[in-house]
Amino acid sequence: MAIAVSALALTACQATNPENVISIDRAQGAEGNIASLTQVIANNPNDAEAYNVRGSAYGRAGEFQDALKDFNTAIRLNPNFYQAYANRALIYRGMGDLAAASNDYNKALQINPRYDVAYIGRGNMYREAGQANNAFNDYNRAINLDTTDPRAYNNRGLIYQKRGQHKQAIEDFSKSISLSPSAPLPYNNRGLSYLALGDQENAFTDINKALQLDKNIAEAWVNQGLIYEQRGETGKARNAYARAAQLDPKYQPAKDGLARVRG
């Protein structure tokens, strides 16, 4: 058990970059969709919502400057467009301008204090900055507003997990899974908390489920390797660690696991 617990902080899935959190279908970042949205704007040049949607599509495509221009226009056309402020905050986060992102989240919440998406986005920003308590408070606010966004529960669960409060973490990961059963990361994260509590069977089931949903999660392969290693199944552990290292050659837990089983 010592191996798994010591690796816990390293193998939880922490992804919260803008590509993961802009709430718009990924397909809308495709060139064809941006072209169709551009035609909508050409026909309705004063439609703030159209600029907001195209800005989100640009954000999905990684074209942050174009996204900023569209969100700026949306806000100019509708100064109370709190969704556009929150979306622009995501772009600022992606560009590393946390001060501007914070200002936009605060503005969105000033306009609409019940906007759960802004609490979650600001919470993610706080968590990435190492301000876990502020992040925890924002996730709580979103959850108290009866959010149906699974990220609020998954990300609060990560904070519980880091604090060693694994029963609470499992509850949050389970809620996140119930809201989005096809998302792999909460399964991996819940598996880690099961592992920390000594429930290897449920941990193994969850980690394998995460890999069934997405075979490209290096962290989940390492976690699977940890369990195989605990079981004394060295060959299977080696294969899992090797797969993680193939996916992410710089991922230290994968390299450490390979070193142990080779030794």
Automatic annotation (TrEMBL):
Q: Which Pfam families match?
A: TPR_1, TPR_11, TPR_2, TPR_8
Top-level taxon of origin? Bacteria
Organism encoding this protein: Hoeflea poritis
User: Sorted alphabetically, which PANTHER family does this protein's record hold?
Assistant: TETRATRICOPEPTIDE REPEAT PROTEIN 6, UDP-N-ACETYLGLUCOSAMINE--PEPTIDE N-ACETYLGLUCOSAMINYLTRANSFERASE SPINDLY-RELATED
- Per UniProt, which keywords does this protein have? Repeat, TPR repeat
Presence of keyword Thylakoid: no
TPR repeat coordinates: 48-81, 82-115, 116-149, 150-183, 184-217, 218-251
Q: What is this protein called?
A: Tetratricopeptide repeat protein
